[in-house]
Amino acid sequence: MLGKIYRYILENGTVIKVQFTPGYFHHLLGLQKLSDIPLVTKSPRNKPTYIYRGILSGVINLEDIQKSNYFHEIESRLKHFPQINRLIEFEKIIVDFDPNLINSKLTKANYVLFKRSNDNMYLNLFLMTDNVSPDMQIPLTFLPDMTDYYTYGQRVMRIMSMTEIVRNMKWNR
Asked: CB atoms < 10 A from the CB of 57, how many?
């Protein structure tokens, strides 16, 4: 998904552009919850991009992650994460996500792409505005849930179209 921009046109004509960055990959998977696994614990010496590269290179693998006492907290994310690579299947988006409706700490999120999974879970991909490119949204976190907890009462719009734009970029974030 890196090196691509996903351009969504909403039913009201709003255009949302989404671009993945390695710096939030650990958060998408929930690795920050595995505080007992030093390889995935974020620190000044172990930045999110290092964690991402460690996963790509095989230095960090699923066996390492499964050893955590907190693995059960992210197991659903890992199971459902492959389904977000089919971003074209997202049909709805929450606009102006209001974390106060659910007493959430996700105050940076502006939008939430969501869909139902093959096993009927709600797959919620939270987006935030990129500080470097304010016209771009970055996936902040990914939260599968059995219920519509994150979507209930929020302002939802249909996605009318999605275009995938391939870009060759070097990632430093």
From this structure: 9
